[in-house]
């Protein structure tokens, strides 16, 4: 309705520019960002299932909605606080912290403690998702931004599709706490992979794009 701009001030002629070859932008840094997008949603979909499994074991499934609301409100608060910061944190660091605080949530034995346990994960959820999107936007040349955003969406969808069955297997083979541990470890693995891939590729200078959040206004 507001016709938001899709290109920055220095990208006005991007539509007429030649489309860059895929090997020029699908480098280690981009693969790192897509890997962390995949890992973030793998973790989040696993947490959803682990919450239900924990409450089912405690005979408190009816309180699942309350726990999810606490998780969601915590994410909103975390996003607002992080958005007010002037200097963003690295994506791999946020995802790694998200994985670390998710693992001990499995120690909660009832819905009250589970509400407390998911606050840490909630506070880091929106910042991690936002930083992943920002990283992909910055690395995407204007001429292929649609393709890159499509790859990001596919990576996140794959994470949502894999997270629940992966955590479900862990719960079946152990206890509900194993679901939180598996989800957290998946996030840590993606964060570590993203960090290592990012270090393999130098910072991109030529052809770097302006993030979508910094745009000229279209009348």
Low-confidence stretches: 205-219
**Sheet of most strands:** none
How many distinct beta strands? 0
- Please bin the fraction of helical residues: 55-70%
Overall pLDDT metric: 86
Q: What general outline do the C-alpha atoms trace? A: elongated
> Approximately how much beta-strand content do the residues carry?
under 5%
Quaternary state of the chains: single chain
Write the element-wise H/E pattern from the N-terminal end onward. Answer: HHHHHHH
Structural class: mainly alpha
Query: Helical segment tally?
Result: 7
| Cα Rg | 19 Å
Kindly summarize this structure in a few lines.
This protein has 219 residues and is an all-alpha fold.
Describe this protein's structure.
- It is a single chain.
- The chain is an all-alpha fold and 219 residues long.
- It has seven helices and no strands.
- The chain has helices spanning 22-25, 28-57, 64-83, 91-102, 111-139, 145-173, 176-200.
- α2 (28-57) packs antiparallel against α5 (111-139).
- Residues 205-219 have low confidence and may be disordered.
Topology diagram in text:
Layout: H1 22-25, H2 28-57, H3 64-83, H4 91-102, H5 111-139, H6 145-173, H7 176-200
Features:
219 residues, mainly alpha, elongated
